[in-house]
Specification:
about 250 residues, alpha/beta, Rossmann fold, 2 domains, five-stranded parallel beta sheet, globular
Length: about 250
């Protein structure tokens, strides 16, 4: 079953499955969340989906991708003392991109920790993203979108990973622009109390906020809301988290 090994993340699954089904696959994606290993696993399943119609797990493409030995499944991550993505890495990647897929239908490139890319390397990567070759898909995995140049962000489709297992296919629609402030009814200015059993509903609404803010390209507030999601998942008090978020999105907390 497609994405069977990935828990939750119904919105991300729906977006990717819809893109594949409708043959509207973007050349570059940003996977944004706090769990890099989970997003890397999702990217691996995405690569298998593109290169095996049944995601069988048994064909040569699936086996080689799982073993990290497929020539068309490339993974980059920060290296060296500074733990960054360096210009030499992107230059080498560009040479590989120019070759294109050799065994599978798609060349799939995952850059883990893409928000740790050096400026010169980011400029070089941007040139690749601006003129994407056919049958090449990039996934940039980031935990702090503020550290990624906006020029790079503008070339990618963003998928946010909130880690919420309770979101289902029926409640993943994008909100309207007023949803941010509707959600903040959880704050003490509107609700006298907020019980712990509100946590999953809070996480569901947090995800709606994230997509609204990203759609508006307000990346600073996206990052603040992601921090609120992290606090909720670490069992912080729901009411306190929403009070903090209310102040933060209102511009009073930096």
């Amino acid at each position: 079953m497609v994405f069977e090994s990935i828990k939750g993340e119904a919105r991300a699954k729906k977006m990717i499955l819809g893109a594949v089904k409708n043959k509207r696959i973007s050349s570059s994606y940003i996977f944004y969340g706090f769990n890099s290993s989970e997003m890397a696993d999702f990217a691996r399943e995405f690569a298998k989906l593109l290169n095996c119609a049944d995601l069988c797990g048994k064909c040569q493409n699936c086996k080689k991708i799982d073993l990290n030995i497929h020539p068309d499944f490339v993974v980059l991550q920060p290296e060296g003392k500074k733990n960054t993505i360096k210009i030499d890495m992107i230059r080498e990647l560009k040479e590989r991109v120019n070759i294109g897929p050799t065994e599978a239908e798609y060349l799939f490139i995952t850059i883990i920790g893409a928000d740790q890319i050096e400026q010169e390397a980011a400029n070089s990567l941007l040139k690749i993203l601006e003129e994407p070759p056919s049958k090449v898909v990039f996934v940039l995995i980031v935990s702090n979108i503020n550290n990624l140049p906006k020029t790079v962000i503008s070339r990618c489709q963003c998928i946010i990973f909130s880690g919420n297992e309770q979101i289902t296919e029926e409640n993943v629609g994008l909100p309207n622009s007023n949803s941010i402030y509707d959600l903040l009814q959880y704050s003490s200015s509107n609700y006298p109390v907020s019980k712990e059993n509100d946590r999953q509903e809070a996480l569901r609404k947090m995800e709606s906020i994230l997509y609204t803010l990203y759609r508006n390209k307000d990346f600073d507030k996206v990052y603040k809301t992601m921090n609120a999601v992290k606090m909720l998942k670490n069992n912080a008090n729901v009411k306190i988290v929403f009070d903090h978020l209310f102040l933060s999105l209102g511009g009073w907390i930096r």
